[in-house]
Amino acid sequence: MKSRWKVLIGLALLALGLGLWVWLRSPLWLEQFNERQSEARATFQAQGRLFGQHNDQQACLAQTLKAFDGCSGFDCTLQHDYFLKACLAEAAPSPGFCDGVPAYRVTPTEDDKSWAKYACWDGNIRGEGCRMLMRQQQYECSGGVAADAPAQ
Questions:
Q1: What is the pTM of this model?
Q2: DSSP per position, the chain
């Protein structure tokens, strides 16, 4: 019976030590993640601006989705989002780029979600983040103003 208590106490101390180690390391992980994202943001924004200076909106979206296809992970999605935003800011307007694109909303409707989902599926773009990229097209086509934004 005494040995069972020693084992339980040992396991509890081990769990406590592991929890403390994870807690102490978490800020470092977050700091490193933020530093990597900051570097990636600068790189992808520069590439997006350069591409956008020589192309139109449709080319920006097509290039982003082509590069994004198969991307997995949150940081990968963010990187392509940085590229697309910067590219669209520099790109020439494309005729028809906004045709059929629903208005941007802070809180997407089911129709908005369905539009993004099918835009990705129809383009055979894999990766859950594709929908986030399609929201950038909505945002651009709405002039950066959300249809459901409170009146000011």
A1: 0.76
A2: -HHHHHHHHHHHHHHHHHHHHHHHHHHHHHHHHHHHHHHHHHHHHHHHHHHHHTSBHHHHHHHHHHHHTT--SHHHHHHHHHHHHHHHHHSBP-TTTTTTPPPP-SS--HHHHHHHHHHHHHTT--STTHHHHHHHHHHHHTTT--TTPPP-
Q: Is 73 helix (H, G, I), strand (E, B) or coil?
A: coil
For residue 92, give the DSSP letter.
B
Task: Please report, for the chain, the start and end positions of each structural domain, with discontinuous segments joined by +.
Answer: 38-141
Instruction: Give pLDDT tens digits for 97-117.
Output: 999 999 999 999 999 999 999
On whether the CB atoms of residues 86 and 44 are closer than 8 A, the answer is yes
Distance, in Å, from the CA atom of 145 to the CA atom of 32, rounded to the nearest integer, reads 33
Report, as an integer, the average pLDDT of 44-67: 96
Nearest CA to 79 among 50, 126, 46? 46
